[in-house]
Backbone:
């Protein structure tokens, strides 16, 4: 069952330009050039109940704009959005009670007082019944193991501790849908792990998560489906596992040899990096050149000292998508 | 020396350029400062309009004192008041290191960065008011102009000292952005003819916190109404500035050794 | 309906409490007023004592009335001032305003609740100490002429101040750099509120204009109610009528502010945070 449907979503802005040199700066006191920028174009997708989807894209692709439209804080130029049966912008007051939002860079916690006080404030804002509040709070606090820090002023906490508190803020009112914008940014490995476990646990209990991130480990470990937005348009919308196949059935081979490695002329084979005369990294398209065949021909050309065969890295796949010119 | 001039010039240009970026804001702010000034001595205007007065002072004479106060404030605003906010925000955000690692005197660099072009409106308004007030007064000579400049400069030393003291205190007493307000309140004693205050207050405002040097002493001297103690008061002004520099440098050093 | 009001009240209490706690970490901030207030008053004291030497009454006010007036304006200020304009523009500029759009909370109401919490601190650390200083050390008559009237007027000034400042803050929804407009309104406020000098010193035309500007209702009017008599533009009004006048002004200001809020948010969600 789809909990979010987006149809032909478009957002356009007006922007002003001025030059950099002193003359243009002075001229700009009297006149500036205007242009229309399309930050999101004809975007359509849907999210099912209980999914965790990741929205990826290069900086400036339109991810944040999309999230803002989904959460109702920005209204679209055209198109339809339906979340939990609400039009986020038009029915914002009732809608926001049903969602949780975490902006990695913008805190809901009040700086000089303990997070616990901010939690209690949110309790009143969301009108959470006291028993539910207490139960949930105790549960989240023990899941994150932060019982001893929530009574200390927010400014004394580390980034990881603060982020955990932000999560609690976002979920105290038990929203069925949660939007996370860069939730693990700047966190250490352990903190990231804890947060991912928390998200997985809550997801198992039925919460739908929409996550924007640049952290590919977040994507690999959490996300079931990936949506890639580039230059305002959707360029990929499918299961994460399919992403690997996007560049074809490619493998990475790292080879070190006893003799210098010259060019390797095989269809479907490409030297992606020359580390030295004796060590190279290769990309093999196994559709064109079977692994067995490759190894056979290689061993005839080169005296192999060491070889390792890996899946192509997620980074490469995503950057190749980012680098595509949509036109 | 030339290098210091270059550094200062660069910071000045950077400030002017960024002020002009938000064009409407810049024009409006300068205009508002200009208007605001004209209204600054409103109290004086209304007092005299109501047929009352500061005894012994004509309307234009009282206005002269206030215009000198504005001129001094404007100069301070353009050249060094910014150091209070700069220092405070650097300390709060922990970014002072960025300044400290540069190969030049940190105090000088912060002062250069404190250049604030927007106060130019205030300066303009102050000049207009100054000229207007002088138009109705006699008693100026070349000698009195020279003495005026001397005392005005001493008054700037006081402003400079205050700015540095407030900035220095903000190293320790970080969150108190109201410190400048305390000094503003004391400075307000210097905006009016000193004859309205009892002797004790005059002593304090001349020698202890020499705020009278900001406006009252120079303005009074310009129109030929000066007293010997005005000039003795130059000494505490210089001391104030020296103390400010010393305190700031001291705080900067202890900040460096404490690791911020 | 009743549930909604109870909920609103609970939210206000929670936010006020949180704000009180937040600012009591900066108690010394408030305590600076204990220094600044009396110092500024001293300057006024010397100015007016000098000006009044030889006159018993200027523009209908005696020296003791003048001094009471200035003390009253300062004390009222401690109970009614706010930084709603600065706070709001800060939230908008840093992008943090969005964390309020995303919660079921009207930010105007939130800001008002914040003010309530902050002013409780003002009552404790600014009003009471300064009152003591003015009354016991400077021997100025700072007891209100009528306690009930004074409280009503101060409560209304509390709201009026909020509506003015919040409206000024909303300029930030429309312009990236709003400091100049805000400074302009603060300037007007400083002059026409009567905090510089009682409005009776202004030319008659400006006195009349003050009835139609919102500013006198934050300082001059409540200060006159506090000291017991009200005259402006040669119009003398009994205090109950003055309170009614203030009420009308506050209601109008409230409506304007609320409408501006709705319009500004609509614009804001069109152009992005």
Residues:
């Amino acid at each position: 069952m789809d909990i979010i449907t987006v149809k032909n979503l478009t957002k356009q802005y007006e922007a002003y330009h001025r030059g950099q040199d002193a003359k243009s700066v002075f001229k700009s006191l009297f006149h500036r050039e205007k242009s229309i920028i399309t930050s999101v174009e004809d975007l359509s997708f849907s999210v099912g109940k209980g999914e965790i989807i990741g929205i990826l894209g290069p900086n400036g692709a339109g991810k944040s704009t999309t999230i803002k439209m989904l959460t109702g804080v920005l209204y679209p130029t055209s198109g339809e959005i339906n979340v939990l049966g609400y039009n986020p912008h038009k029915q914002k007051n009732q809608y926001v009670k049903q969602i949780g939002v975490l902006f990695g860079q913008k805190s809901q916690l009040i700086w000089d007082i303990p997070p616990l006080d901010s939690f209690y404030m949110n309790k009143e804002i969301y009108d959470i019944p006291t028993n539910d509040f207490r139960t949930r709070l105790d549960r989240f606090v023990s899941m994150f193991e932060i019982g001893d820090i929530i009574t200390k002023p927010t400014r004394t906490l580390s980034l990881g501790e603060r982020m955990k508190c932000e999560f609690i803020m976002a979920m105290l009112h038990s929203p069925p849908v949660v939007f996370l914008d860069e939730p693990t940014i700047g966190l250490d490995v352990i903190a990231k792990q804890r947060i991912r476990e928390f998200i997985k646990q809550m997801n198992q209990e039925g919460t739908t998560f929409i996550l924007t991130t640049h952290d590919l480990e977040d994507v690999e470990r959490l996300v079931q489906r990936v949506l890639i937005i580039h230059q305002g348009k959707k360029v990929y919308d499918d299961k994460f596992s399919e992403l690997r196949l996007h560049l074809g059935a490619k493998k990475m081979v790292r080879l070190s040899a006893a003799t210098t490695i010259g060019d390797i002329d095989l269809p479907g084979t490409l030297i992606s990096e020359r580390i030295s005369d004796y060590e190279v990294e290769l990309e093999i398209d196994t559709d064109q050149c079977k692994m067995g065949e490759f190894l056979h021909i290689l061993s005839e050309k080169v005296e192999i000292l060491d070889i390792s065969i890996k899946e192509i890295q997620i980074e490469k796949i995503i950057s190749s998508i980012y680098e595509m010119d949509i036109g | 020396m030339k290098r210091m001039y270059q550094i200062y010039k660069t910071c000045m240009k950077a400030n002017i350029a960024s002020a002009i970026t938000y064009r409407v804001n810049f024009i409006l702010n300068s205009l508002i400062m200009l208007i605001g000034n004209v209204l600054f001595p409103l109290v004086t205007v209304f007092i005299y309009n109501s047929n009352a007065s500061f005894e012994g002072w004509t309307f234009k004479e009282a206005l002269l004192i206030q215009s000198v106060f504005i001129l001094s404030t404007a100069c301070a605003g353009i050249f060094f008041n910014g150091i209070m906010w700069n220092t405070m925000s650097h300390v709060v955000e922990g970014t002072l290191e960025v300044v400290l690692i540069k190969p030049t005197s940190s105090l000088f660099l912060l002062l250069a960065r404190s250049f604030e072009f927007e106060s130019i409106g205030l300066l303009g308004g102050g000049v207009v008011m100054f000229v207007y007030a002088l138009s109705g007064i006699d008693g100026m000579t070349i000698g009195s102009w020279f003495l005026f400049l001397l005392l005005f400069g001493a008054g700037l030393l006081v402003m400079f000292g205050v700015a540095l003291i407030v900035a220095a205190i903000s190293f320790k007493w970080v969150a108190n952005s109201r410190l400048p307000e305390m000094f503003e309140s004391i400075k307000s004693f210097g905006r009016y003819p000193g004859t309205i205050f009892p002797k004790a207050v005059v002593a304090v405002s001349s020698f202890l916190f020499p705020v009278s040097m900001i406006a009252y002493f120079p303005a009074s001297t310009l129109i030929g109404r000066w007293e010997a103690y005005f000039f003795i008061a130059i000494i505490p002004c210089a001391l104030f500035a020296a103390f400010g520099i010393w305190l700031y440098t001291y705080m900067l050093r202890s900040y460096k050794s404490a690791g911020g | 309906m009743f549930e909604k009001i109870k909920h609103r009240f609970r939210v206000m209490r929670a936010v006020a409490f949180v704000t009180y706690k937040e600012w009591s970490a900066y108690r010394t901030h408030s305590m600076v007023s204990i220094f600044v207030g009396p110092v500024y008053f001293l300057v006024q004291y010397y100015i007016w004592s000098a000006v009044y030497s030889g006159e018993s009454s200027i523009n209908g006010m005696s020296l003791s009335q003048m001094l009471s007036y200035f003390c009253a304006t300062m004390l009222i200020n401690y109970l009614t001032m706010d930084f709603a304009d600065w706070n709001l523009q800060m939230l908008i500029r840093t992008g943090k305003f969005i964390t309020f759009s995303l919660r079921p909370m009207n930010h105007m109401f939130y800001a008002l609740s914040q003010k309530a919490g902050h002013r409780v601190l003002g009552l404790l650390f600014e009003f009471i100490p300064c009152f003591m200083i003015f009354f016991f050390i400077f021997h100025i008559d700072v007891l209100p002429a009528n306690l009930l009237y004074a409280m009503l007027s101060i409560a209304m000034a509390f709201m009026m101040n909020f509506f003015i400042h919040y409206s000024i803050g909303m300029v930030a929804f429309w312009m990236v750099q709003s400091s100049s407009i805000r400074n302009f309104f603060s300037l007007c406020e400083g002059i026409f509120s009567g905090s510089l000098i009682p409005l009776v010193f202004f030319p008659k035309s400006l006195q009349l204009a003050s009835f139609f500007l919102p500013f006198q209702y934050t300082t001059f009017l409540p200060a006159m109610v506090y000291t017991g008599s009200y005259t402006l533009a040669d119009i003398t009004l009994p205090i109950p009528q003055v309170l009614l006048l203030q009420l009308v002004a506050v209601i109008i200001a409230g409506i304007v502010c609320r409408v501006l809020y709705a319009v500004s948010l609509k614009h804001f969600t069109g152009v992005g945070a």
Observations:
- Chain C has a mean pLDDT of 91.
- The first helix of chain C runs from residue 2 to 24.
- Chain C is about 75% helix and 0% strand.
